[in-house]
Each structure stands twice: as structure tokens, then as C-alpha cells.
Amino acid sequence: MSNFASGFNFDFDFDFSGQHVLITGGTRGIGLGITRSFINANANVITTYLNNESAKDSLLLEYEQLQSQSPTKGKLEVIKCDVSKEEEVKNLYSHLENSYPSLEILINNAGIKRDSIVGTMSSDNWHEVINTNLNAVFYTSKLAVLSFLKNRYGRIINIGSVGGKLGLAGQANYSATKAALIGFSKSLSKEVAKKGITVNVVEPGFIDTDFVAELSNELKESYKQMVPLRRFGKIEEVAYAVLCLANKNASYITGTTLEVSGGLS
Ligand code: NDP
């Protein structure tokens, strides 16, 4: 099996040949790890981003290099789409319907944080986080389910956060969205259970990404001390959990939450 990125020395031994995966926010951080892992596993990947063109370009370059060295069966398409805007999500799905025979897997990964204590949090920061982390998941999941019904098969994996359970100070907006994803996923899983569709949440703890790079060294150290494994997780460690749940054999796992946090909560 070929490896997507140099230094990406994780081979998961999954095979998603012939399957189509939509990953929101798959050009950086955890989403990038998920994109690489599905490509390694021969899936056709459609991934979105918001506005970071250089991250998009470097993903496409990485993919071209991989294809020239050791081609994978899967295709990659990277699409600019603000998933917090319902109209843009509708356009995205129209494009998918016209370009691909089917959709089997949706990974709702795009997420932002706008940290501040509630007393000083602006309404804009509240709504921006709710729109991206929660409303977007409704827009994409609704259309994914309609598409999945055609084949009576589908996998939805929502990227939550242990912050949804722990409620870190300064993250009320973020924690509220991540807690809400659990309720949303449980309800949806019950609605679609008989249709061969599963819906689950993967909850990362502290993962080495731009998300945590912004923290001061002092804060990073204190967070590491909170983690029983005493380190931050790697993007491929989250991707592994996602691919497990996305696998066709994960057919009896639905409405649940899988924590990838080094034992944090
Ligand atoms: P990053 O900030 O590294 O990457 C976020 C990705 O989402 C980027 O590709 C970004 O695009 C995209 N994105 C952001 N907003 C939108 C939008 N409105 N529409 C489409 N794409 C968007 O995030 P992480 O990898 O750190 O986090 C990914 C997920 O994991 C999030 O849901 C986060 O809450 C969760 N998580 C992360 C943890 C961590 O420690 N990193 C811990 C727990 C949970 P662009 O590059 O164009 O900005």
C-alpha cells in the first residue's frame, strides 16, 4: 500500500476502493490527516476548505507527487466551500451529484474556535462558531442522508471534542457546539438506523495542529500534564478512529462517541 505523505508512516490496512468520501475542512490539521488516510486507502476524496489557498495548493501538490511515484486508485478533488452557508453546501451537493456516481461517507470535520469568557464574548464570535461547528453539520448531513438513501448505505462521522464534555473556561461557544453534536448524532442515528446508515462522533483531545499551535508554551505544558499519556495526539491517530468507524464492517456501531484523547476526560 502506498503512503500519501512523506513522513506519514501509518498504514492502516483499510480499503475504501470505489467509495466516495466528503470531508469538510480536509486541507489542514486533523482533516488533512483524514484526507491522506482515505487516499492511502484508495477512496475517492472530495474535500473542502474555507480560504487558505496555500494549504489547498500544497495538498494538491502532495497528491500529484504521490500519483507520479506510486499511484493510488482514489481521486482527490479540493473544493472551496464555506460549509457554514447553506446555499454553498447545496451548490456543493449539486456538483457532487453531477460528478460522482454516489456518496458513501461524510466526515464533518471543519471547525473553528473564537475563545473568550462569556462576559466579553461578542455575539459575532458566538454565532460564527455555532454556524461553522453546528449549523454546517445540519446542512451537510441532511443532504448526505438524502443521497445515502438511494443505496441504503452511508457513514457519517462528526468530529466533536472532549471540550464538549469538559467545558474548558473561555470556550463556552465551542463547547456548546461540540456537546450539541452528540445529541444531533444520536437523534439522526435513530432516524436512519434501518437504512444502513450509521452516525457517530469522534472526540479528539489535544491534537498537534494549528489549533493548539496558537497556545503559549506554558499553556501547552499545563495541558500536556492534564493528559494521562502526557503528550498531544497526532492527526493520524484521530484519522485511524475515523477510518475504523467509516469502514463497512463498523455496521453495528451507531449513535456513539469515540474519544481519541490519550485518556483526557
Ligand atoms: P484547523 O484549524 O487546523 O483546520 C480547520 C479546517 O477546516 C481547515 O481546512 C479550514 O479551511 C476548514 N474550515 C474552517 N472553517 C470552514 C468553513 N466555514 N467551511 C469550510 N471549511 C472550513 O483545525 P483542526 O484540524 O485543529 O480541527 C479540526 C476539527 O477537529 C474541528 O472540528 C475541531 O473542533 C476538532 N478538534 C480539534 C482539536 C485539536 O486539538 N486540534 C481538539 C478537539 C477537536 P482553511 O484552511 O481554508 O481555513
How would you sum up this structure, described in words?
By secondary structure, the protein is α/β, with parallel strands linked by helices. 46% of the residues lie in helices and 14% in strands. It contains 9 helices and 7 strands. The protein has a 7-stranded parallel β-sheet with strand order 3-2-1-4-5-6-7, sandwiched between helices. α1 packs across α9, α3 runs parallel beside α4 (123-149) and α4 (123-149) runs parallel beside α6 (172-192). The mean pLDDT is 94. Bound molecules: NADPH dihydro-nicotinamide-adenine-dinucleotide phosphate. NADPH dihydro-nicotinamide-adenine-dinucleotide phosphate is lined by residues 24-25, 27-31, 48-52, 55, 81-84, 109-112, 132, 159, 161, 204, 206-207, 209-212. NADPH dihydro-nicotinamide-adenine-dinucleotide phosphate binds at residues 24-25, 27-31, 48-52, 55, 81-84, 109-112, 132, 159, 161, 204, 206-207, 209-212.
Per DSSP, what share of the residues sits in E-state strands of 2 or more residues? 5-15%
Q: Please, how many helices?
A: 9
Which strand order do you get reading across the main beta sheet?
3-2-1-4-5-6-7
- Overall geometric form: globular
Secondary-structure element string: EHEHEHEHEHHEHHHE
Regions with little confidence, pLDDT below 50 for 5+ residues: none
Q: Biggest sheet: strands, sense, closure?
A: 7 strands, parallel
- The CA-CA distance between the termini, in Å, is 35 Å
Roughly what is the average pLDDT, rounded to an integer?
94
**β-strand number:** 7
Structural class, by secondary structure, is alpha/beta
Amount of helix: 40-55%
Radius of gyration: 18 Å
Bound molecules: NADPH dihydro-nicotinamide-adenine-dinucleotide phosphate
